[in-house]
Amino acid sequence: MLVWSRPGRIVIWLVFTLLFGVLFLAPLAVILLSSLADQWNGVLPSGLTTEHYSDVVQGAAWKAVKASLVTGFLASAVALVSGTWAALALRIQDATLARVLGVLFFIPSAVPSVSVGLGLLVAFSHPPLLLNGTIAIVMVAHFVLISAFTFGNVSAGLARLSPDFEQVASSLGARPAYRLRHVTLPLLAPYLVAAFGLSFALSMGELGATVMVYPPGWVTLPVSIFSLTDRGDVFAGAALTMVLVAVTLILLLGLERVTGRQARS
Amino acid sequence: MSVPAFTGSNVMDVDAAKIRGAGSNVHFDKVSVAYGAHVVLHPLTLDIAPGEILAMIGPSGSGKTTALRAVAGFVRPASGRIRIGATDVTDLPPYERGLGMVVQNYALFPHMRVEDNVAFGLRAQGADKALIGERVKDSLATVGMSGFAKRYPRELSGGQQQRVAIARALAVRPRVLLLDEPLSALDAQIRRNMVEEIAKLHRDLPGLTILYVTHDQTEALTLADKIAIMRDGRVSSHGPTVELYRLPPNRFTAEFLGRANLLPVTVTEGATGPKGFATARLGDALLAGAARGEKPGDKTLLCIRPQHLSLTGDEEHTNRIVGTLKEVHWQGELTHLVLEVDGTPVRVSATRLPVSLPERGSAVPLFFTPGDTSLVPEDVRG
Ligand SMILES: Nc1ncnc2c1ncn2[C@@H]1O[C@H](COP(=O)(O)OP(=O)(O)O)[C@@H](O)[C@H]1O
Ligand SMILES: [Mg+2]
């Protein structure tokens, strides 16, 4: 809806700012403030301190960052490869089959992630599929949860790719592998990077399934935050949250720069 | 001597075969295409001679692109065979057919510079570096784009992109060049120039066989040695360009290729005289026209092009009809008139007008020579 009158526009902006502020910025601001709070009993903290940050840094923060980054990177990379492969493979199937399989891919994201974790735990706790208590089961859980998004992103990219590019390439003598490497994938690159970024962000914030399956010694950031706040250590939890936000943000901005450069080149 | 089948890797063989000098013919042998139960190409038999430009024209949806893509290998015929030269390519994948293809929106690879676009086919086929460098230079020179090798496609205008697309197709020394509406994304002025440039390209590469798909009759008339007119998935007519224009074999062809006045007439006498003209009756007038084996009593159509009708008679113009003047549109070089003859609207494009133009609504005589007319059978379908 287009609103032309000046007061109308001001109202629209106010509503937008309010919504954005209340829903997105306020929680973040509260967490930021908590992470720096000395004591917080009144409306505002009674004093500010960086003590919580030094606590978490001296504590398990770095191990958690590492666990989250490694999990996120590996799960996203595998999801990217398999999601891309699935999208490419499904494209040449007949349309009905492709749609059905496409929907199947999304089922894990419709199920509560706790249930996904539980399912994996049950499924992989007997030989020969004994993954229970390994790092691998964390990876598998993340992979299951994020692969639908990589698949969806790459499929969307493929759907927008004019078949002319690939057909011209074929007619010029490019075999399928050459065509994939030199035409299809480069043209899909922006979607691949976006898919990777989204997967990574999802993985960084994943809690429900991870809580169910994580082994001792592989505590991801969200799990650490959860257990800190669960123990009543809200300020430390807030500090760790800010670390999580910072790491994810740096990552996404880095990816954004890569795609931005690609789009310009 | 057997001709080796083209495969993606034997670039050198193809080069040695001097494709430039001797192109291949393309043969459609009862090729049909269906999407599910929907038949979009009825069994099509058509031959494109080596070095010939065949324009396939017809309204949108008539199956032109489908026929072209069957040659390229992107549409599988439901029946029939397609041969290129001595090779039956029906079962070959597109990358082994040795063709060049140019599509309407160019489809230049946006992530590659012009030179890499042009080099693409040869690189994909594993040609050696020196050959690629030479061919890229050559092909870009052929289309007048040598100065743009380092540019990216988005830094080029539509016309320039089209040239690069053609250069990219030429660089692999295709046996056949397939062009699908190559100019329809360009504006009128550039399109006219490009038509001339494609004509020049073919003069430089006379051996190159070209299948040129378009819905634009001007492009077809300008470029083509032969024209195939498509209608509802069938070839409505096929023949040398001039012949098809002068002696259209049916109403659809007469109306699709240029403008045509088609007057319903009754044949009174079959082909007679040294020129073999038939005589036909239109109202009170007896008219002569190029015959097509009509017999007395046949009802048929007399085709006269608007530019062949004259308001002023001389001894050549032995045919005369009288119409009622309805509209006059003066356009500088040409004046377009619309008259009504026996209930049929008749268009006239006149360069010379009588000193005083007749009034609207008055009876006006129109003159034309028998040699400029032909008898055209009414279409059986539709
Ligand atoms: N992939 C497809 N699936 C189903 N029908 C198609 C497909 N491609 C083309 N058609 C149909 O085939 C007919 C001929 O199309 P096309 O060859 O593209 O016509 P033209 O190029 O002459 O405009 C049209 O009726 C079109 O709707
Ligand atoms: Mg078409």
What would you note in describing this structure?
The complex is a heterodimer of chains A (265) and B (382). With 265 residues, chain A is an all-alpha fold. Chain A folds into 2 domains: 1-49, no CATH class; 59-264, MetI-like (MetI-like fold). Helices cover 79% and strands 2% of the residues of chain A. Chain A is built from 11 helices and 2 strands. In chain A, a hairpin with a 2-residue loop joins strand 1 (125-126) and strand 2. Chain A is globular, with a radius of gyration of 23 Å. The two termini of chain A are 35 Å apart. The model of chain A has no long low-confidence stretch (mean pLDDT 85). Chain B has helices spanning 11-16, 64-72, 114-124, 129-142, 158-171, 188-204, 217-223, 241-246, 251-256, and strands at residues 26-35, 38-48, 53-57, 79-84, 87-88, 99-102, 176-180, 209-214, 226-231, 234-240, 261-272, 277-282, 285-290, 299-304, 319-330, 335-341, 344-350, 363-368, 373-376. In chain B, the strands form 4 sheets. Chain B has a 6-stranded mixed beta sheet, sandwiched between helices. In chain B, strands 13-12-11-14-19 form a 5-stranded antiparallel beta sheet. In chain B, a hairpin with a 2-residue loop joins strand 1 and strand 2. The complex binds adenosine-5'-diphosphate (ADP) and magnesium ion. Adenosine-5'-diphosphate binds at residues 35, 40, 58, 60-66 of chain B.
